[in-house]
Design goal:
Low-confidence stretches: none
Shape: globular
Oligomer: single chain
Radius of gyration: 15 Å
Distance between the termini: 32 Å
Helix content: under 10%
Order of helices and strands: EEEHEEEEEEEE
Strand content: 35-45%
Number of helices: 1
Largest sheet: 5 strands, mixed
Structural class: mainly beta
Length: about 130
């Protein structure tokens, strides 16, 4: 496994590097993460912000803060895909796992807010799988 992982937004305008040693990974099924991602859960990695750096396109960084909540979404202003977010105190970074080009090395993995998991995702692992469109 590489010591440094690269990542990017969908269109490639924004690129970054992060040290491949993450503290934790959360697969979050809360209502807000499902709305932000449009999926059954968000897959986010967490690490020290000193291990992260933008290499291209930081000027395309957009941010939406949910009023009245400590919840924000950062995204590429060109393609809209989720990109890493630095915590308000600047010490941590949350990296959307899907934007990484490689496999992350992570210490702790947890599924969180399972009580909010949608009914249509309850038995996902039992559904028939395909390597491409059937």
């Amino acid at each position: 496994m590489s010591d440094i992982l690269t990542g990017r937004c969908f269109c490639g305008a924004m690129r970054y590097e992060v040290e491949n040693s993450f503290d934790k990974m959360f697969f979050c099924s809360c209502d807000q993460c499902r709305q932000i991602t449009g999926s059954a859960f968000a897959s986010n990695l967490f690490t020290d912000s000193a291990k992260f750096r933008w290499t291209q396109g930081e000027e395309h960084l957009g941010r939406y803060d949910l009023p009245g909540r400590k919840l924000a979404r950062t995204f590429c202003k060109i393609c809209g895909s989720g990109v890493p977010k630095i915590s308000p105190n600047g010490k941590q970074v949350m990296v959307p796992a899907g934007g990484l080009e490689g496999d992350p090395n992570v210490s702790i993995r947890r599924r969180i807010f399972q009580s909010e998991r949608p009914h249509w995702h309850q038995h996902y692992e039992t559904y028939e799988g395909f390597d491409q469109f059937p």
